[in-house]
Amino acid sequence: MNKHKWFLLVIFATLLATLPLSGSATQLDTVGTITAPQSEAPEGTDWILPGVERYDAEMLAEQHNITSEESAEMLSRQPAIGQLRAKLAARTDGNFAGLWVTGTNPKTQRVTIAFKQNLDEELANLQADFPYPELLEVTTAERSYDELWKIYQETIAQRNSLATIDAQRIDIALSEEANEVHVYAPTDIINNVATLLNDDPAVKVFESIQESKLESTTTIRGGVTLRTCTAGFIVVSGGSRGVTTASHCNDIQNYGGTSVGTVVKHQYGYNIDLQIHGLGSNWAPRNEIELLWENRVINDRSGHSSLFEGQYICKHGKNTGDSCGSITEVSTSQAKTPNSDKITAADYISASGDSGGPVFSSNTALGTHIGSLGNGDAVFGSYSHWEYGFNWYIMTTCC
């Protein structure tokens, strides 16, 4: 356990000892701004649902000022929503336009699906197969998802045709909820960008936010603190084991003062910002990620096609620790990751040094944190962009 965790535990114990007893036990709910999750379920209850981690539920409950039971119910719905999003995106009839989730409690949560036409028919078909039909609502969109994707790709091409010094400062995102393509550019070039880029009314140009939203160890797992960045996940290839981090991080990384091995795979661009360090026999890798309050087992993974706007996800980084938020855009073209159009944006808190850290939902791996977008949102890359091409796969069983 590192010195920062010991320091937190000392504070925790000191504060706990000063609290008055109430009933048979005294519980400290917060240390600063961090909520300490319950180690036991409330006596006589079984509110936690299969596939929902208590820690995630309690973080969501704190953010939305709802009960843990309510947040667990909301999180339990996410796998089905992801499957629906993937199914709709695979359609070829040109009617689907987007999907997003709104609402801060189970009663107000809604899954909105946009179509160009035939709303009543589409809604009836969706409600017949979806396990939570009461959540579904439909709306009309001017552009189908395929049409919007074409505009998005054209805008990326126009951005890439600009002078390199300018192109690397412009981020682009596809917003399904707005049914628009959003461009983020710095103040000094925003007027030129608005003139030069796609004049389609679906393209909106915004000024970039310059600041982020930041308010001998042998066992190794994802999420641990590396020399300059954060470890993502433990990966396997045949009998070999490795650990991931972001490709833009230094090639020389260590954990606990010991090298995590040389880089065996790496790519920076085309939706991938990832490097894999081959672990030697001196390491005992685990299919886990290290969080502030626990070591979380990773036993599943979910790819880019199953992500959706409004999906609640979490990340761990060495500088900001554990933070959660919602996906704001499934596909963006972050300027710092060359030739990319499927980098995903979310509003969780992050900072420099968090790069490479795991992004996850419950026990499911989603991808790795790689930086921020021009609007201040964080961005991560899906594991599904590199796993098969690299022939390295996230470890989901031990060991």
- Alpha-carbon Rg, integer: 22 Å
Report the helical percentage. Answer: 10-25%
Going across the major beta sheet, what is the strand order?
A: 19-20-21-24-23-22
From the 3D coordinates, which CATH architecture of the largest domain would you assign?
A: Beta Barrel
Assign the CATH topology of the largest domain.
Thrombin, subunit H
Q: Which descriptor suits the 3D outline?
A: globular
Structural class: alpha+beta
Give the helix tally.
9
Domain tally: 3
The biggest beta sheet is recorded as: 6 strands, antiparallel, barrel
Low-confidence parts: 1-47, 211-217
Number of strands: 25
Average pLDDT taken over every residue: 84
* Strand composition percent: 25-35%
CATH superfamily of the largest domain: Trypsin-like serine proteases
Distance between the termini: 21 Å
Walk me through this protein's architecture.
Helix content is 23%, strand content 31%. The longest helix is centred in the first third of the chain and has 16 residues, at 3-18. It starts with a helix and ends in a 5-residue tail after the last strand. It has 399 residues and is α+β, with helices and mostly antiparallel strands. The chain has 3 domains: 51-141, GMP Synthetase, Chain A, domain 3 (2-Layer Sandwich); 145-207; 213-399, Beta Barrel (Thrombin, subunit H), CATH 2.40.10. The strands form 6 sheets. The protein has a 6-stranded antiparallel beta barrel. Strands 14-15-11-10-25 form a 5-stranded antiparallel beta sheet. It contains 9 helices and 25 strands.
